[in-house]
Design a protein that fits this description.
Layout: E1 7-15, E2 21-25, E3 28-32, E4 40-48, E5 52-62, H1 88-106, E6 116-117, E7 128-134, E8 141-145, E9 152-154, H2 163-178, E10 193-201, E11 206-213, H3 221-231, E12 235-242, E13 254-259, E14 264-268, E15 271-275, H4 285-299, E16 306-310, H5 316-322, E17 327-332, H6 335-347, E18 353-357, H7 360-369, E19 376-379, H8 388-397, E20 401-406, H9 409-421, E21 424-432, E22 442-449, H10 452-469
Parallel strand pairs: 3-5, 6-21, 11-12, 16-17, 16-19, 17-18, 19-20
Antiparallel strand pairs: 1-2, 1-4, 2-3, 4-5, 7-8, 7-10, 8-9, 10-11, 12-13, 14-15, 20-22, 21-22
Helix pairs in contact: 1-9, 2-3, 7-8
Bound molecules: S-adenosyl-L-homocysteine (SAH).
């Protein structure tokens, strides 16, 4: 039986989905941050739970060849990156393994390895920065939350963010200090500035700065704009996000433009996209292009085909598909994103795309009732995956292909299994890394509709696997 505070010598064999190292000691799985598979370490047990224990490394006895000195001075403090202690090769290996494990164990697929497309660069890639504001050393500052806390750590430079984002943060902090702008206190729900938010269009060079505040106005708004513009000459627009509710949501639901148009543009897969602060946009532009190209190739579109894109955001994938399909329909729940999507169709001269703002489940049901029969359904849902009503409505529409883009391998695997049980067969799966140094990973699975006799075969096959794993 493992004992708290005792030190054990052990070898790590793999990773959890959050990237913690996993070792087996006395028959129990022990999760340890910053441990690398293959390493022998001395581990102190910090907590013994019912099924797993947690520990920390006391000493690395035989370091992995993949162990590196973190490039970031905040590694271990900041809750952002998970893999600063290993090289990128190992990070990609573990991410591919994680997707493969989910698809085989939860999804019941039989896979013989899974490929991952790693990023060409692991630094300065994020298109979006969200810096929480606090009073860490008795004065206004902004940076990142310490791991598992809401304590703000001031930072100079974040290696995965753009330099422009850090310059905007520094200039906004200077403005708060110069004009004694009150910092928001989440416990008392008082004060003003909550977050500094930056979005960059890497292909256009455009930058949006957004101050999130617990109020309708800011003191010295024009001085703020001047200071931000002086810090980043290519700044395009400055927006105030009014966020007066309690809670962890970063952005509020109302916006007021302080300078410029209130949005920026970026170019993705050869199309020009307008991006408002609230619209979803992948945080890694180069890798998003690769992901979308792969997903759209799997859709096997041509001008005779209709594609439905559920969870379409600002219409990025929808409009890329429109170039190859007869017609496309995009569905998204956020009004501002649909507004952007319609604008985006227009600014790219795309006439065969329709968008509407609705819950994916309701929209899919309505389309199914209306008799819409898309040849392809593309889904790119948030982390929680797709709900049962969406699965049922999709199956009713009976597309030949379903292409599922996902940022959570576990919910992807769960949904793939449900689709396989309803007559679809997963014919391709791969991963694309959009989040170098961080624990997230994107993946794409293509499912194809089987004929009736194949359906029986698949049901049996799935059941067989279930029995095997029990
Ligand atoms: N395909 C887009 C957006 C993917 S992110 C892109 O790659 O850019 C997932 C999107 O789903 C977000 O825009 C989010 O607002 C939207 N969304 C979340 N819940 C939804 C729901 N129930 N119905 C429709 N859209 C939803």
């Amino acid at each position: 039986m493992l004992k708290k505070n005792e030190i054990y010598e052990t070898e790590f064999t793999g990773y959890t989905s959050e990237g913690l190292g996993v070792a087996r000691i006395d028959g129990m799985a022990v999760f340890v941050p910053k441990a690398i598979a293959g390493e022998r370490c001395r581990v102190r047990i910090l907590k013994v739970g019912k099924t797993v224990a947690y520990g920390k490394i006391e000493q690395v006895l035989t370091p992995s060849a993949h162990r590196v000195k973190p490039a970031c001075p905040y590694a271990g403090l900041c809750g952002g990156c998970a893999f600063q202690h290993m090289d990128y090769e190992e990070e990609c290996t573990l991410k591919a393994q994680r997707v493969e494990d989910a698809l085989t164990r939860i999804g019941g697929l039989q896979l013989d390895g899974l490929s991952i497309t790693g990023a060409k660069t692991t630094g300065n890639y994020r298109t979006k920065a969200q810096f929480p504001v606090g009073m860490p050393e008795g004065k206004a500052d902004a940076g990142f939350f310490r791991q598992r806390s809401h304590q703000v750590i001031p930072i100079e430079r974040c290696g995965i963010q753009s330099e422009d984002a850090d310059k905007i943060r520094a200039a906004a902090v200077e403005w708060m200090r110069k004009y004694r702008v009150p910092v928001y206190d989440e416990v008392a729900h008082s004060g003003l500035v909550r977050h500094i938010y930056v979005r960059c269009g890497f292909a256009t060079g455009q930058v949006l700065a957004c101050i999130v505040a617990n109020g309708e106005t800011l003191p010295k708004e024009q001085e703020l704009v001047s200071m931000l513009r002086a810090a980043v000459p290519n700044l395009t627009t400055v927006v105030l996000s009014i966020h007066t509710k309690k809670g962890n949501a970063v952005l509020g639901d109302r916006f007021r433009t302080l300078w410029g148009e209130g949005y920026i543009e970026d170019i993705l897969c050869g199309l020009r996209f307008r991006l408002s602060p609230r619209s979803f946009y992948q945080v890694n532009r180069d890798q998003a292009e690769r992901l979308y190209e792969k997903a759209i190739a799997l859709a096997e579109l041509d001008e005779t085909k209709t594609a439905l894109d559920l969870y379409c955001g600002t219409g990025t994938i929808t409009l890329c598909m429109a170039k190859q399909a007869g017609s496309v329909i995009g569905v998204e729940i956020i009004e501002a994103a649909i507004h952007d999507a319609k604008e985006n169709a227009e600014r790219n001269g795309i006439k065969n795309a329709r968008f509407f703002c609705a819950d994916a489940g309701e929209a899919a049901l309505r389309l199914a009732e209306e008799g819409t029969k898309p040849d392809v359904i593309m889904v790119d849902p948030p982390r929680k995956g797709i709900s049962m009503d969406v699965i049922d409505a999709m199956v009713t529409m009976a597309p030949q292909r379903i292409v599922y883009v996902s940022c959570d391998p576990a919910t992807l695997a769960r949904d793939v299994k449900l689709l396989e049980e309803r007559g679809y067969k997963a014919i391709h799966a791969e991963a694309v890394d959009l989040f170098p140094r961080c624990a997230h990973v994107e993946s794409v699975v293509c499912l194809s509709r089987e004929k009736a006799d194949d359906y029986i075969r698949i049901s049996v096959h799935t059941k067989d696997l279930q029995t095997k794993s029990n």
